[in-house]
């Protein structure tokens, strides 16, 4: 095997391992790392976690404490045991889409209503939050 072929094979193993182990981040109840996000995850919950930590998308850790992030906010509640606070994923989706429905004076932006995130992105965020 030539050097270039061996390098491509090794790179493929590293990328494949990253994709294989990316969902494990969720099993630990924490946000994925930037490295895990760079591995282009296909799992909707991992993709949602990547949106949550992306400063130009969700940037949720600016306001919330989220396990696995280093920048913890203190404006919103800690995002843990999410299922205890929301009876189902639909209620959580609605809270992210337009939190002003439940609290007109909330500091949380209406991510869906204001077109900050698409409905598909919000569904992925919900899938991620459901793992916490």
Structural summary, described in words:
The protein has a single domain (3-129), classed as Cytochrome Bc1 Complex, Chain D, domain 2 (Orthogonal Bundle). The chain is mainly α and 132 residues long. It is globular, with a radius of gyration of 17 Å. Mean pLDDT is 82; it is low at 9-25. The protein has helices at residues 3-21, 24-27, 34-38, 44-53, 82-85, 89-97, 119-129. The longest helix is centred in the first third of the chain and has 19 residues, at 3-21.
Give a quick summary of the entry.
The protein is mostly helical and 132 residues long. The protein is 47% helix and 0% strand.
Walk me through the topology.
Layout: H1 3-21, H2 24-27, H3 34-38, H4 44-53, H5 82-85, H6 89-97, H7 119-129
Helix pairs in contact: 4-7, 6-7
How does the major sheet shape up?
none
How big a fraction of the residues is strand?
A: under 5%
Helix fraction? 40-55%
Return the CATH architecture: Orthogonal Bundle
Radius of gyration, in Å, reads 17 Å
Please report the total strand number as a whole number.
0
Low-confidence stretches: 9-25
Structural class: mainly alpha
- Mean pLDDT across the residues is 82
- CATH level 1 class label: Mainly Alpha
What is the terminal-to-terminal distance? 45 Å
Give me the CATH superfamily. Cytochrome c-like domain
Q: Order of SSEs, N→C?
A: HHHHHHH
CATH topology: Cytochrome Bc1 Complex, Chain D, domain 2
How many helical stretches? 7
**Outline:** globular
How many structurally independent domains? 1
Features:
132 residues; 7 helices; globular; Cytochrome Bc1 Complex, Chain D, domain 2; mainly alpha
């Amino acid at each position: 095997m030539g050097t270039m072929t061996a390098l491509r094979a090794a790179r493929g193993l590293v990328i494949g391992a990253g994709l294989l182990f990316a969902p494990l981040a969720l099993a630990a109840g924490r946000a994925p790392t930037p490295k895990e996000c760079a591995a282009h995850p296909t799992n909707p919950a991992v993709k949602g976690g990547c949106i949550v930590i992306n400063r130009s998308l969700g940037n949720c850790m600016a306001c919330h404490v989220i396990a696995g992030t280093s920048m913890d906010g203190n404006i919103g509640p800690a995002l843990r045991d999410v299922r205890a606070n929301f009876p189902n994923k639909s209620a959580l989706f609605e809270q992210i889409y337009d939190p002003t429905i439940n609290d007109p004076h909330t500091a949380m932006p209406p991510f869906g209503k204001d077109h900050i995130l698409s409905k598909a992105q919000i569904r992925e965020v919900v899938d991620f939050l459901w793992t916490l």
